[in-house]
Amino acid sequence: MRKRMIAGNWKMNNTRPEAVVLTQEIANRVPAAWLDQVDVVIIPPFIDLLPALTVLDFDKNEIAVGAQNCYWEDHGAFTGEVSVPMLKDLGVTYCIVGHSERRGLFGETDEDVNKKVKALIAGGITPIMCCGESLGIRDAGEYIEFVTAQVDAGLAGLDDIDMKNVVVAYEPIWAIGTGRTATPEQAEEVCAAIRAKLADMFGAETAEATRILYGGSMKPENVDGLLAMEDIDGGLIGGASLKSNDFKALIEAATK
Asked: What region does 137 belong to: left with phi over 0, alpha with psi -120 to 50, or beta?
């Protein structure tokens, strides 16, 4: 049985004081007993990682903290980048890689994603590897082939042992920040295809154990239908993660 996960991607939002307030609100609203049933991760901007970790450590709260990006080299002349050892030293336990905004706005390639996935696994941080199609690819009917090719490339060179420390997030680009959401059936179709691809790559047992999140405008109004799908194990949440009551509602739904 795969443990569900609700991960909140704050994107480029919240100053340090705002991050402290939001982290505290989430910590106060999420009962400790829920964390036995669902893994909860907050994913602030780099500047907010330490404030968020400090709040959770002070409260002795088991909500995890992730980063939104990393670089694959441990150190060197890479101005503006943050390495896996730096994140590990802070206490970060998850890191998003290959988010559609990184791919679309900053030119991140499948090869880049693969290097980051490998660096994170080697450094003891769990990658949340994103994949997903644009509206054009969806309308052309090529979305299954496109998404599974991203999975193939992003996880190339890994083995079944490595995959114990990988989360995959399916995020249809046409449903991110648009208010549009894939229907549960549309999301399930692609998540099931991702799991089938994982089975081809790593075997059925590993595929069944790997968590696949849905990341396209999941909110309190649609969470129950999405989580009812067999191959959707939680959500990579955007806008709803910035409102503690909405985020709590999603976490509560994942405990059912």
From this structure: alpha
Kindly name the residue from 101, 108, 133, 171 that is annotated as catalytic: 171
Q: Residue 3 gets which letter from DSSP?
A: P
pLDDT truncated to tens, each residue of the chain (256 aa)?
899 999 999 999 999 999 999 999 999 999 999 999 999 999 999 999 999 999 999 999 999 999 999 999 999 999 999 999 999 999 999 999 999 999 999 999 999 999 999 999 999 999 999 999 998 999 999 999 999 999 999 999 999 999 999 999 999 998 876 666 789 999 999 999 999 999 999 999 999 999 999 998 899 999 999 999 999 999 999 999 999 999 999 999 999 9
| Half-sphere exposure (Cβ direction) of 83: Cα atoms closer than 13 Å | 12
Q: Three-state SS for 147?
A: helix
Please give the backbone phi and psi of residue 80, each rounded to the nearest 5 degrees, phi first.
90, -10
Please report, in angstroms and rounded to a whole number, the separation of the first and last CA atoms in the chain.
Answer: 14
99 a catalytic residue: yes
**Given the residues 99, 108, 133, 188, the one annotated as active site:** 99
Q: How is residue 179 written in tokens?
A: 């208010």
Burial (CB count <10 Å: 0-12, 13-18, 19+), residue 58: exposed
- Tell me, yes or no, if 75 is annotated catalytic: no
What are the φ and ψ backbone dihedral angles of 96, each rounded to 5 degrees? -75, 140
Count the Cβ atoms, other than its own, within 10 Å of residue 109.
Answer: 12
What pTM did the predictor assign? Answer: 0.97
